[in-house]
Amino acid sequence: MEKFAGIDVAKDTLEVFITPGTRKSFLNEDEGRKELGRFLADVRPGLVVLEATGGYQIPVVETLALRNLPVVVVNPRQIRDFAKATGRLAKTDTIDAEMIARFAEAIKPEVRPLKDSDANRLQSFVARRRQLVEMLTMERNRLGTAPDWARADMEDHIEWLTDRIKKADKDISSFIRKTPLWREKENLLRSVKGIGPVNASILLARLAELGKLNRKKICALVGLAPFNRDSGRFKGRRSIFGGRAEVRAVLYMAALSAIRYNPVIKAFYGRLVHSGKLPKVALVACMRKLLVILNAIIRTNTPWCAQ
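Request: output the structure for the sequence above.
Response:
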């Protein structure tokens, strides 16, 4: 009988559930992760599933990968939706571990190649830049209603954050440029009008599957595949849902630029609006078309060509 493992990753502990009913707990530190790796290597589960937990899962995944275990990291929302569907509304670490294992047994998510240390480092750079941008936005919003005595301090903080973002951009660019494969991919992505250095770096860090999936799968992964909303005679409006929000945000900004400066996307957007599509709907369609183009460019290793 094939076994499935679910691991709930917390800051200090790792709760493990092995189907049909084995439970174990390990410390989330170096020796504890090694012990977990040895334990699972002896059990030999058909699949090991973890939730993405803000980075705490990365050293666990790396430890298990060294043991050649089939590891998959999934979106926490999928686990909670699965738990609700099975009637399990309570939430503890041990319950979560069991739900993750039951999810693995029922859904069997596809095992994909894991990121290497350089890819994880690039993702950390990009995540830190996003945090700085979010802090800068909040500080600028506060400045509008700030009392006089606080304005000078806030303006100094805004200046500091702006400098740190510029430094983060330089660090990301130099990190990408020193790796031949990423440098080549970045050049391919930036050959498309509308894709700038920030867009390219986030796509490289957050969408490693680019060029490896077909057009339907890559759009569904990002959350740009429209889903039906039909029931009986009712025909609902199709809409996008789920996926990787940060990548969608990048494609949104890229599409805004592309409908002005990219002749193919500009003409496509114009045809949609002329045919009666709402501007927002047409813009989402341009995001999807742009993603399909980028996916094809990386897959074929061919720079952008308007023809």
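The first strand starts at residue 4 and ends at 9.
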